[in-house]
């Protein structure tokens, strides 16, 4: 079970970073093609905030996967 944790964290990291990339792209495009309507800016801002949050969580899970992998491999080397 211990070796599955870094793989799961890496999978979640990859999924969240993909969501962040796909969310910030259309939001940035909506901001650059602003027609002057206020509703477009509000929706794009919410989508951009969601994308940034997903990206930050993805980076945190990526770091957690690296640290977990390091602890597990060190434990397996010291306690075979």
Could you describe the 3D structure shown?
Keywords: Membrane, Transmembrane, Transmembrane helix. The chain crosses the membrane at residues 42-67. It is a single chain. The protein is mainly α. The protein has one domain (4-78). The chain has two helices and no strands. The longest helix is centred in the C-terminal third of the chain and has 41 residues, at 38-78. It is rod-shaped and about 65 Å long. The relative contact order is 0.19. The model has no long low-confidence stretch (mean pLDDT 85).
Per DSSP, the total helix count is 2
Gap between N and C termini, in Å? Answer: 16 Å
Mean pLDDT: 85
> Fraction of residues in helices?
over 70%
| Overall 3D form | rod-shaped
Topology order in helix (H) and strand (E) letters: HH
Strand content: under 5%
Low-confidence stretches: none
Largest sheet: none
Helix/strand/pairing category = mainly alpha
Total discrete domains: 1
The tally of beta strands, per DSSP, is 0
**What value does the Rg take, in angstroms?**
18 Å
Keywords: Membrane, Transmembrane, Transmembrane helix
Transmembrane segments: 42-67
What is the topology?
Elements: H1 4-32, H2 38-78
Give a brief description.
It is built from two helices and no strands. It is mainly α. It has one domain.
Name some characteristics of this structure.
about 80 residues; mainly alpha; about 90% helix; about 0% strand
